[in-house]
Amino acid sequence: MFHYFQLNQEEFYQHYHKRSNAETTFYMLKTKFGDKLKSKSFIAQKNELLCKAIAHNIVMLIHETHELGINPNFNF
Question: What residue spans of the chain are helical by DSSP H?
Answer without folding.
Answer: 2-7, 9-33, 42-68
